[in-house]
Amino acid sequence: MNEKLIYIGLAAFGILGPIAFPDYIIQFAVLWIMVIMASTWDITGGQMGYNSLGNIAFFGVGMYISACIQVSMFYDLGDFTASYGAIKPVFTDLQYYTGLGLGIVFAGVGCSLFSLLLGLAVFGLRGPYFAIGTLGVAVAAREIAGTIDVIGAGAGIAMPFLPLPIEYRSAFFYVLCFILAVFAHLVIRWLFKTQFGLAANAIRDDEDKAEAMGIPTLRYKQVGWAIAAFFMGCAGAVFGNMVGYIEPLEVAFPVATFGIFMVAMSLLGGKGTLWGPVLGAIFFHVVKEATWTYLLGLQWVVLGLILILNIVYFQQGIMGWLQAKYPERFGIAVDESTSASKEGV
Amino acid sequence: MLDNLQLLFVYAPVMNVQMILDGIFIGAVFALAAYGLALVWGVMNVKNLAQGDFVIMGGYVAFTAHNIGIHPVLALPIIAIVMFLYGLVVYQLVIKRVIDNDMFVSLLATFGLSLFMQQVMNLIYGPEVQTVDSHMYIMTMFDDFVTVPTVKIVSLGLAAFFATVIVIFMTRSRMGQAIRATAQDARAARVLGIDTNKVYMFTFGLNSAICGIAGVLVSMIWVLQPFYGIVYALRTFAIVTAAGLGNLPGVITMSFILGWVEQYAGIVAGAEYQIAAAVFVLIGVLSWRQVQMRRQRQVVR
Question: Is residue A60 a part of any domain in this protein?
Answer without folding.
Answer: yes
